[in-house]
Amino acid sequence: MSLAFVILGAGCVSYGVAFLLHVLSFAEIWKGGRRAGSVMLQTGFLLGTLYFLSQGFQSGYFLPVVNMSAALAFFAWTLAFVYLVLLGKVRTESFGLFLALLLCVLMTGSLASFGRGRDIQTMIRQHPYLLNPTFVLHVVSAFFAYANFAISFVASVLYLIECHELKKKNASNFYYKLPSLERLERMVCLPLNWGTPLLLFATATGLVWAKHAFGSFLLLDPKTIVTLLILGCYLLILYRHWVAAVRGKEIAVLSLIAFVVIVTSFVETFFLFGKHNFL
Known about the structure:
Number of strands: 0
Number of domains: 2
Distance between the termini: 23 Å
Strand content: under 5%
Oligomer: single chain
């Protein structure tokens, strides 16, 4: 059993415990569950940081997409970073509950696929162009963009649930445990404001890297086409929000639709031929 696997396992357990503690708090079984759950989320984040630092020192490279296990772990890490660091002032108990579950699922997937696929040395031998620093910038900015969009998606779901509950004459207990619509709207819009410029940067650096690595911008690559579509969706959302002054439910619905397009793009990465299907 390798040290990396132990660290990943400990991170997965931390997120699982965080989820259970948030459930205890949400169910009003233990009032201190929320604070303890937040501590366990931070612990899982620190363990994820340790994992990638150790992998970087061991191999001499930082490449979070070397295989599926690393990609899932890095996506979990970026999600935790956005939530714990960037959204520190607007974090909520109910949101932490759903996020902890999502993080636990991602880390479980990382553990299940650990040791499968290529290691970083094999990856570099087969794809030497991945050592280009522009590629690392492209990947990291893309992961952070998608992490922001995922958090906006979760907040949008909670926002629409609360809107639905408001229309009912007798709202359920779940409604009273949700944050206010104003706070949820901030958790929908803030990640969109951060994620869209990051995706724009990721797209630009990806095109520059592709030109350097392959002599072409790969504009007809399936992943490039879908990424441009996703970027267009989120630019439209920002336009509707900042220029057309659209807020509330419409922004939440648009965020949901755009994230469905993202999920679709990940499906095509594995089933359609292109330069991006190297995991």
